[in-house]
Specification:
Layout (H helix, E strand, L loop, with lengths): L1 H15 L13 H11 L5 H9 L2 H4 L4 H11 L2 H14 L13 H12 L4 H21 L4 H14 L5 H19 L1
Helix pairs in contact: 1-3, 2-3, 2-8, 3-6, 5-6, 6-8, 7-9, 8-9, 8-10, 9-10
Length: 184
């Protein structure tokens, strides 16, 4: 399984290309790797770990759903490829500015929140890990944006509660601690 995950990590890293993390001088891939490692402690299935590595590829790179599916079928069973793709699609924001420029952020985030509540427990588990990783960076490096972002995350967590219950509690605690830290 580790060989497959290494191949997927390389694919994700290549897909993200020269993208960097917004607040640190790190290649973008460090974020999906941290999300995967967090997930590994709660759900070590190949599709979950692979989707954690790939969770931003469709949303943030030129890679299409079809291209990703074609790649996945070359490195894992069809069943795992289908499940991984499903999870990545579930993790991909639909209500983004590029598609809905006439909607303000609040409206887009509300529609996205409603969509997230319909996603699978495994996708929600990945979302919790994503929230934990992003919350830590944003609360530390962007005190102006952090209150809004953390409130949005709290709303997601209140509505999307079907994922791993232990990771859910950890995500809630991380967001709440981030909000408390901003008040100090």
């Amino acid at each position: 399984m580790e060989d497959i995950l290494n191949t997927i990590r390389e694919y994700a890293d290549n897909a993200h290309g020269t993208q960097m993390r917004k607040y640190t001088p790190e290649r973008y891939i460090v974020h999906p790797i941290r999300v995967m490692e967090t997930c590994r402690n709660y759900d070590a299935s190949l599709p979950v770990l692979a989707a954690a590595l790939l969770h931003d590829v469709i949303e943030d790179t030129p890679v299409t759903e079809q291209e990703l599916h074609g790649f996945l079928k070359t490195v894992m069973s069809n069943e795992d490829a289908e499940k991984t793709l499903q999870l990545v699609v579930e993790m991909t924001d639909v209500y983004v500015w590029d598609t809905y420029p006439h909607w303000n952020r609040k409206r887009r985030k509300q529609a996205e929140l409603e969509r997230i509540t319909t996603t699978s427990p495994q996708a929600q588990t990945i979302k919790y890990a994503d929230i934990i990783d992003n919350t830590t960076e944003i609360a530390l490096h962007d005190r102006d944006f952090a209150p809004r972002y953390l409130r949005e995350c709290l709303n997601i967590l209140k509505a999307a509660d079907k994922g791993n219950p232990e990771l859910y509690q950890r995500a809630l605690a991380t967001v709440r601690e981030g909000l408390r830290g901003l008040r100090r």
